[in-house]
Amino acid sequence: MTASTANIPIAIIGAGIAGLTLAIRLRQAGYAVKIFEARSEEVGSEGAFLTLAPNGINALKALGLAERISARGIQTLGIEMLNASGKRLALIDERKLQHESAAASITLPRSALLEELLMAAKAAGAEICFGHALTDLEREGACVVLRFANGVAVRAAWVAGCDGVWSKTRRLAFPDAPPPTYTGLTGTGGFIDLPAVAPTDGFMRMVFGEHAFFGYIKAEQGPVFWFDSFPLAEHDAMARPDPRALAAFTRRLHAGDPEPVGEIAANITHVPRAYPIYDMAHLPRWHDGQIVLAGEAAHAVSPHAGQGASMAIEDVVVLAACVTHHSTRPAAFAAYQELRRERAEHVVKISRQRGTQKQAKGRFALLLRDLILPWVIPFGARTAHSVMRYRADHAPLVKPGL
Predict the structure, then answer these.
(1) Residue 90 gets which letter from DSSP?
(2) pLDDT tens across 339-380, in order?
(3) String of DSSP letters for 272-319
(4) Would you identify the CATH topology of the domain 3-180+280-388?
(5) 3-class DSSP state of 52
(6) Residue pLDDT, tens place only, 155-191
(7) What is the chain's mean pLDDT, rounded?
(8) How far is CA 153 from CA 35, 146, 150, 161, 166, in A?
(9) Cβ neighbours of 250 (radius 10 Å)
(10) Hey, is 17 helix, strand or coil?
(11) Which helix (H) or strand (E) holds 165?
């Protein structure tokens, strides 16, 4: 950090998973930090749930938050895949991997993760400004001037864009950057209390239905965590249907699915919104020496590999390590991009490949998928397991293998 920026805070755009985690890690290293979030503080209640893979839980160990956050969720031991008639296609048991990684996979409400991160960021001394929508940024010597829709202007030593797949930071700082790509799938999800549905014994159960893909997990006590994904044209996916109409659509999609999916779907009465699934295969630049991107702002990952949140947390651990280790921002940001981009793009590719398996249509395509998947899934699991073994908490400055 130069003398001219020594007393100027670092600005983080976005109070999501990447932004809050970065604020915590930088505060732990002694940096002054301000987070700017366009939405209100209640934004943390949005979204359904996510799974933190062992690499994500291990990355949280660098912040001292792994145990606290793990306690908010369900330990997820693996995945069971079924076809549209309820026949098992594959069972991926991850207990050995989790033991070797010294970390579990944890499925938890997104709101619970954000609540823990927000509390930790505030406790660490990060200043968090809600209701600040970024409208412009200007490089001014060694600093960056940020302007917001509410008329506030702020000088920052440097800026971290952690504002998601539709990152305003990315669009302002790198106007030639390619936009995210719609994957052809849209998803919904939520929670529903159904005592009659049996627990899944720690496994996420996933069904390749005739019309859509459905997944759920249930602990001994508590609601069913459910999600689905289905092919939909992009212009339809961007619409915001009434939550009751969306619930009715979900019930129709899964009416013929094997039990208990049919029962779960039949009891869905309110779906707040659908989420069009986008990804971003390659971003030429993640930084320019004063502005750097992290999380989905740098590499939007579709949810099919269960790695989006874990990759964002990894980004933060590595970025903070680079900032602390290198004497200049350009060197730190260049090292961060070198350490992270290849791995991130690898995970984007894995996730997109998994998504294509969910788009089969027609009886012949479904039959062919059922014949191929028992051979494909174990290979894909081995590839995913190699991703999960990475320890950002142990060696953040060492480039991981693929």
Answers:
(1) E
(2) 999 999 999 999 888 777 666 666 666 777 777 777 777 777
(3) ---EEEEE-S--S-SB-SSEEE-GGGT----GGGS-HHHHHHHHHHHH
(4) FAD/NAD(P)-binding domain (3.50.50)
(5) strand
(6) 999 999 999 999 999 999 999 999 999 999 999 999 9
(7) 92
(8) 14, 6, 9, 17, 22
(9) 25
(10) helix
(11) none
Dihedral of the CA atoms 357, 57, 34, 177 (nearest 10)?
Answer: -30
Domain segments of the chain: what residues?
3-180+280-388, 181-277
**Per CATH, domain 181-277 is 3.30.9.30:** yes
69: alpha, beta or left? (left if phi > 0; alpha if psi -120 to 50): alpha
CB 320 within 8 A of CB 26: yes
Residue 258: half-sphere exposure toward Cβ, Cα within 13 Å:
15
Token look-up 């750097």 returns 292
R_g of the chain, CA atoms, integer Å: 21
The count of other CB atoms within 10 Å of the CB of residue 198 is 10
Q: Select from 358, 398, 391, 396 the least CA-distant residue to 376.
A: 358
The encoded tokens of residue 183 equal 């994957």
Round to whole Å and give the CA distance between 23 and 10.
9
Rounded to 5°, angle at Cα 93 from 260 and 211: 35
Print burial letters for 103-117: b (CB count within 10 Å at least 16), e (below 16): bbbbbbbbbbbbebb
Q: How far apart are CA 386 and CA 312, in angstroms?
A: 17
DSSP 8-state secondary structure symbol assigned to residue 38? S
Residue 362: its pLDDT value, please? 65
Tell me how far CA of residue 59 lies from CA of 43, 80, 233, 348, 393, in angstroms.
Answer: 24, 26, 36, 19, 5
Q: What is the 3-state secondary structure (H, E, C) of 193-209?
A: CCCCCCCCCCEEEEEEC
Does an H or E element contain 389, and which? none
Identify the sign of the CA torsion 19, 216, 66, 309: negative
Residue 108: name the closest of 173, 60, 177, 41 by CA: 60
Strands of 131-219, DSSP E: 134-140, 143-148, 153-156, 159-161, 181-192, 203-208, 213-218
